[in-house]
Amino acid sequence: MASKTASRSFNPFQFIREVRQETAKVTWPSRNETIITTVMVLIMVALTAMFFFFVDAILHWVVNLVIYGK
Fold it and tell me: Which letter, b or e, does each residue of 17-43 get, where b requires 16 or more Cβ atoms within 10 Å of its Cβ?
């Protein structure tokens, strides 16, 4: 059974008009909000990288202790 959308023809001009209407509804962040959010993301990435670095170092030490007894 064919869907209703398959029977309709595609009109690119109507599509562009609808995209513009939907874009007008979007609440865009201010420049300040974007900068603050970006800084927060960079801080969280740095903290996560440090966490995994230390976990990896500890696991490396434990594995060497088990395998080589050092």
Answer: eeeeeeeeeeeeeeeeeeeeeeeeeee
